[in-house]
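Entry type: protein chain
Record version: 2
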Amino acid sequence: MGWRLSDAVEEFLSVAGEFLRAERARNTIALTVTEALRRDPSLYSSPLFGWYSGAGEPGAGEPGAGQLSAAFMQTPPFPAFLTAMTEPVAAALAAELAATRPDLPGVNAEDDAAWAFAGVWRERTGREAEVKRRSRLFRLGELSWPSPRPDGAARLATAADRDLLLAWMEAFDDDVGERTAQDHSRAIDSRISYGGFTIWEVAGVPVSMAGVTRAADGMIRVGPVYTLPEQRGRGYGGAATSVVSQAALDAGIAEVLLYTDLANPTSNALYRRLGYRPVEDRILLAFG
């Protein structure tokens, strides 16, 4: 019992898939990333997955023997993503990963679990944790389009937009302070293949974009949303978000989700106006 680790996405989904889908909104990152990896295993190198089965008695604060109660995944160079879990379970995971992935860049989890993980990480590796970002997960209720709608129109991105999208993805990373060594090219090509980027144009000039993940288990996640700095404040990002949100609803998607940075009151207020409602908060800790 306890934590089991695997580098095989199919094994992970066969064991933990039902558990993840039971709370598909909260586990959107794990479900959409594993779906992308299942389709194209070369998207991320050296992924690692894990699931936790309790060894205690039901009702004693731990799940019964064999009952899966937590899971995680990590795709370098990104932090580990933890599902909801207790502090002792998060601490046990940190002890496991300190021996196998001491270069882990950080952890993305609910607040208490993240700090429990970080405490053991400091003990085992000597690396301190610092808050990188606090984020909020939103779910779309009833979509409310921007009023008045801004000038321009939306179109799906094509292969001809590849260089533009690459530049915008890198600029988005800079805006949120998450520039890594990751090459976005493969992810961009994958998204273009299923219509995963929508560009907002004004007089034929691209000014904003909104991306969506591939549909998985009846949901999609909107993001990234990026607008050129000199074009901000004109409603283009909200319009692009509304277009991809409506497209998801029209396609029968049951859950349309997105994350916001809690340090950005503008985007949080915008998505509420569009009809998105909060689900949960998470914290991203970076290990120095």
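Comment: The chain has a mean pLDDT of 93.
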